[in-house]
Amino acid sequence: MDASLDDLYREIILDHNRNPRNYGALNEGNIVEIEEFNPLCGDKIVLYLQSDKEIIVNVHFTGEGCSISQASASIMTDLMIGKKINEADELLDKFRLYMTDLNNSEPDVNLGDIDAFQGVKKFPARVKCAGLAWNSLGKALQELNS
Amino acid sequence: MDASLDDLYREIILDHNRNPRNYGALNEGNIVEIEEFNPLCGDKIVLYLQSDKEIIVNVHFTGEGCSISQASASIMTDLMIGKKINEADELLDKFRLYMTDLNNSEPDVNLGDIDAFQGVKKFPARVKCAGLAWNSLGKALQELNS
Amino acid sequence: MKFKLDKLASNVKAIRQDFPILDREVNGKRLAYLDNAASSQRPVSVINKFNEIYSNNYSNVHRGVHTLSMESTELYENVRKKIANFINVDDQNEIIYTKGTTESINIVARGWAKYNLKKGDKVVLSEVEHHANLVPWFMLRDEIGIIIEFIPVLDDFNLDLDSLEKIIDKKTRLVAVSQISNSLGTIIPLNQIIETAHSNGALVLIDAAQSAPHQKIDVKDLGADFLVFSAHKLLGPNGVGVLWAKMDILEQFKPFIGGGDMISKVTFENATWNEIPYRFEAGTPNITGVIAFGEAIDYLNNNNYVELCQYAHYLSEFARKELSALSYIEILGPSDPSLRSSLFSFDIKGVHPHDVAQILDSAGVAIRAGHHCAQPTLNRFGFSSTARASFYLYNDMNDVEQFIESIDLVEKRFL
Amino acid sequence: MKFKLDKLASNVKAIRQDFPILDREVNGKRLAYLDNAASSQRPVSVINKFNEIYSNNYSNVHRGVHTLSMESTELYENVRKKIANFINVDDQNEIIYTKGTTESINIVARGWAKYNLKKGDKVVLSEVEHHANLVPWFMLRDEIGIIIEFIPVLDDFNLDLDSLEKIIDKKTRLVAVSQISNSLGTIIPLNQIIETAHSNGALVLIDAAQSAPHQKIDVKDLGADFLVFSAHKLLGPNGVGVLWAKMDILEQFKPFIGGGDMISKVTFENATWNEIPYRFEAGTPNITGVIAFGEAIDYLNNNNYVELCQYAHYLSEFARKELSALSYIEILGPSDPSLRSSLFSFDIKGVHPHDVAQILDSAGVAIRAGHHCAQPTLNRFGFSSTARASFYLYNDMNDVEQFIESIDLVEKRFL
Ligand SMILES: Cc1ncc(COP(=O)(O)O)c(C=O)c1O
Ligand SMILES: Cc1ncc(COP(=O)(O)O)c(C=O)c1O
Q: Are D294 and D79 spatial neighbours (Cβ–Cβ below 8 Å)?
């Protein structure tokens, strides 16, 4: 099979796609809910971010999307649970930098499993898929910060 | 000089351009006045058609335009004076046929000096110029007929 | 039948020589281009036209007396007649050049409907329309308060024609429907819709974006009042489209875009409008694009495109049949093949269409994945996106085989 | 100076090799193309781009996962950055692709002004505007009742800047002016206009259709709020234009055209809008046209177009001087050469401009005759039409000589 396809569909991504973590709505506590669309394909993610003061207590998601967007949501939510809001802000910036910097192939320890998205960068059409959940995170954080 | 240019600028045309017949407004009697523009170049012809029952008693024009449009107006007005309205209708049809039929090089005796426009047909951009006065004639006749 | 198919297959073989992009490799594989409903490829004659015109005859049109301007004006205006013939229109002045189907529909909505419909008047669409035939009407509704109703699509992917009498009534001023659904592949039986519309005094707009590439369009025969399509889906260049309407209807339009070339006279106070079609073609047009589109029409006519498209349909049906044998694949579209065009949407259970398209691409197969600009239609059938294979007159059996084999790769990786 | 001119002349000699159409004969004569203000010609690199893309990378953009779609999307989107750099814009998402200057201005009028101005608000234009910057405002006035006022043009062909303070007042919401008049050749001193506008809280739209081909445009330096121009006047293809506006202003726009690609989500009830710039780019865009436009920008940058255009200006001034020696010729335009661009309108007394252009054409010289889509401006100076010679970066001294000699032919035949 095509090497770069193996690169895109790393086992970590396929696993998160098959068994998405934190899937399902949240409806108790202080919840910010964000619905985000990918206008190019019709994919949708609803993000549920539960916070307590400065801390992100829980993050869940629902919606449909391709393996990349689902895995990205799964990994992102995993990563965010327990983080401080300003830490989340920082991680979001890091992720965006990571996804747009084609040369940087250094994994960033702070981004954890996200390093599996290295191969996605070679597929510009899929970078948007990877970003969907993170964009909704961005909007959720904005709402919390304002 | 270029042969086809000689063909375009026949002496008859240049003469009518230099000394336009029937130039000037009419304002007595039963007059139909039509203002017509060539939107491509800004040229304008105002046609004054004076009729008495079925007869075109007089036709004048004012306005500005290139040698072709001025000569055409001059020749057309000359031709129309004294004609019956239905004869004018027929001549208009004949002129239109004549200007669009690229193959027909036979002069039409009824069109008189219009035969000088044979060469104009080779210059599509100028056919519009030749037609301006005739278009206003068409509108004037329409007004009379209705 | 077999004999005819063989003949068509050999014609297609010859046709493929005219499309240089088909020789290209993708990911080391032969290209199987099955994304034709999104945009077709172009033959050499169309491609070379740009070179020819820009190297020999180019100038701005209409306003020039000099030779280049005369030549480009003539080449540009001659295409109007070609388009008129292509859809069986007598008066070439009824052909308005636009930048595409989308702009054409917007011109009808904002140039005609806005001034000829009033609050409470009804516009009827169908539930299988492309966004291009939805959003302009939503925008108009929000502006002037028209009412929009939909001819429903049934579970069998056909429109509910029984509902026509109920939905199209005396308040209906326009029925705007596509002739072929770009997401479901359904061929819409227009006769009954047009009849019902006309008997209620409503006009009919046909979105022929998907049909014009494949079949002879005859607006007289159809009895349509407006028809729109895009050059890029039938071998033509980008940035060119057509709006046709009957002259007496065109006379009811207000210009959508104002500027040069569409005026008769301008002062510092006011402007009056030029004749139709120029009234609707403000500014420097897509001169070379239009001229190249004329070349595309010639190519279609010279190669008996309607017959070639029967082969595309045969291929589409063949591929569809192969896929339908696979239990994990669901194929959308009517069960009657005569109501299906040369495209189909499908869903591989458990695998997102994006991933399907990605894996097929690794095998050189280009299909589309997404909502195909028909979100509500897909949603109606429980999908947010599908994979879509669409065939055109240069596709061959190799494309079909490559396509089917590549589906195996999806199974291997994801199922 | 002499040395510099020689160097530029030799550069132009090399440049001419890149423009195949310049080798063509017209009426048996060498072509002297002096109709550049209407539309420029294209270099080989731009022409060949159509062939390259259509033969290798073509597909519809944005919605596709497959390789061709990815490639064409990338090529197409990269041009946004090139255009942004070309006019010194930081955020490439502020660059909206349109089909030309005319459409760009209409989008501002009907997408922004219509929703952000109200009855009684004032839009200030100048008396030297192209119809493209007049008619859309007349149409908007008739729709929502704005007031239009004009900065007068003086007998010396310059705008009456003394009147600015009176005309631009607190009711003024927009000042829309061209940077170079396409009929008079006047270079408008924008600084004072923009300052006066901004100090009254009005925004400023610059019609750069004639200026962008000849000079470096720097929207930051200018302090403009909107800027528009067309690709076809600066070596680019037909059917492509640019609308730039600041992001916070773009956010105040409603979409002008609705359809695919400009939406975020569509249901049978409603649609929500996609991000900027896509919100304003409904339908399949002019993909190849935009990509070829990128090539034109590269060509301009790689050949130091601003310097080459100084030579075009030198030629224009040279020709003008020769003509002004003839008593039967009247030349329009400011007396200060630094306020004149590389074009001039002229009138041969007693000979209609059409006839002038016709006779020049017989000598291979292509100039324009007519109202140049600036009827009221010409009328203001007592003309219904003029002849116009306009120069660009591939013109040379032969063109000028051929032009001047051909003027003799007019005299011989008509005077
Ligand atoms: C100053 C000016 N504005 C606007 C336009 C209109 O440009 P386009 O015809 O490309 O839309 C032109 C060109 O004709 C122009 O010279
Ligand atoms: C049925 C239908 N209508 C409208 C359109 C829009 O056409 P365009 O994008 O060329 O404006 C398309 C193509 O995408 C289509 O398939």
A: yes
Map out the domains of chain C as residue ranges.
2-38+305-414, 47-301
In angstroms, the CA C60 to CA D390 distance is 13
Q: Residue C229 CA: which ligand is closest?
A: 2
Q: ipTM, 2 decimals? A: 0.94
Q: Which atom of ligand 2 is closest in space to residue C373's alpha carbon?
A: 14
Which of A40, A66, A100 to probe by mutation at the D interface, max D CB count within 10 Å? A40
Ligand in closest contact with the CA of C230: 2
C130 lines ligand 2 (CB under 6 A): yes
At residue C320, the 3 state secondary structure works out as helix
Which tokens belong to D171? 């009711």
From C369, C385, C413, residue closest to A9, measured CB to CB: C413
What is the position in ligand 2's atom list of the atom closest to the CA of C241? 10
C-alpha of residue C101 to centroid of ligand 2, in Å: 6
pLDDT of residue D173: 98
pLDDT of C331 strictly over 60? yes
In chain B, what are the domains?
Answer: 3-145 (3.90.1010.10)
For CA atoms C282, C283, C287, C289, give the dihedral sign: negative
- pLDDT above 70: residue D114: yes
Decide if pLDDT at A41 tops 80: no
pLDDT-above-70 percentage for chain D: 100
pLDDT band at B1 (very low <50, low <70, confident <90, very high): very low
Instruction: Tell if the CB–CB gap between A66 and C355 is shorter than 8 Å.
Output: yes
pTM for this prediction: 0.96
φ, ψ (nearest 5 deg) of residue C345: -95, 145
Give percent above pLDDT 90 in chain C.
97
Domain covering C2-38+305-414, topology:
Aspartate Aminotransferase, domain 1 (3.90.1150)
- Give the pairing of strands D343-348 and D365-366: unpaired
Q: Which of D135, D161, D282, D373 is catalytic?
A: D373
Fold of C47-301: Aspartate Aminotransferase; domain 2 (3.40.640)
> Is D370's CB within 8 Å of B8's CB?
no
* Residue of A9, C63, C293 whose CA lies nearest to B128: C63
- Provide the pLDDT for residue A108: 67
